[in-house]
């Protein structure tokens, strides 16, 4: 992907807002941002700092955690949860389950017994961390999920299902919420034109100075456990 740069002069960012906008084209997507293939000023970290200003960074944390979970879970869940399912994320199984095969059951495949059990334990720990950190009603970083999405997820959780597809609806909901709102403003010509190229971004300075202390709380132990478990 061609690098997008904004040169400056003593008059500020060079080029008009329209020229900056045209350079973006259709290249800026949430999928690329989550995959960390976008460079500053559109990188994952840039967007995370931007979301801090609106106190909504937990949404990006949730997407990232689910994406990492699905990358691991797909190794032992090769089939779609529902053969008629149309909603997929990039990390979801693509094949429908064969007849008489329960897709909620993990498949050992070529993994050794030890590798299989270790991966299942890791998935259980990650799933618990995601729930406790972003989904539970008492979650310290709770994301805004409607009942029609949260209820089916809770049903799967009660059955201790670890299939990656149980997160598809919540992932898609939060993704669309960001893409249709914050992300559009993040890649807007106005923000790009105003962004300084100084070593310390004004965006970061604003976060450090203006964000209330309550919003600077550390990530919960459960969340730390998730990122530790994925290693």
Short description:
The protein contains 11 helices and 2 strands; from the N terminus they run E-E-H-H-H-H-H-H-H-H-H-H-H. The protein is mainly α and 231 residues long.
> What is the multimeric organization of the chains shown?
single chain
> What is the overall silhouette?
elongated
Number of helices: 11
Residues in helix, %: 40-55%
Strand order of the largest sheet: 1-2
What's the mean pLDDT score?
Answer: 78
Structural class of the helices, strands and pairings? Answer: mainly alpha
Rg, nearest Å = 20 Å
The H-and-E topology, N to C, reads as EEHHHHHHHHHHH
Uncertain ranges: 1-25, 196-202, 206-220
Question: Any overview of this molecule?
Answer:
There is one protein chain. With 231 residues, this protein is an all-alpha fold. The chain is 50% helix and 2% strand. The protein is built from 11 helices and 2 strands, in the order E-E-H-H-H-H-H-H-H-H-H-H-H. It has a two-stranded antiparallel ribbon with strand order 1-2. A hairpin with a 2-residue loop joins strand 1 (8-9) and strand 2 (12-13). Mean pLDDT is 78; it is low at 1-25, 196-202 and 206-220.
Topology:
Blueprint: E1 8-9, E2 12-13, H1 17-24, H2 30-34, H3 44-53, H4 57-73, H5 113-135, H6 147-158, H7 168-179, H8 182-186, H9 189-194, H10 202-210, H11 221-229
Antiparallel strand pairs: 1-2
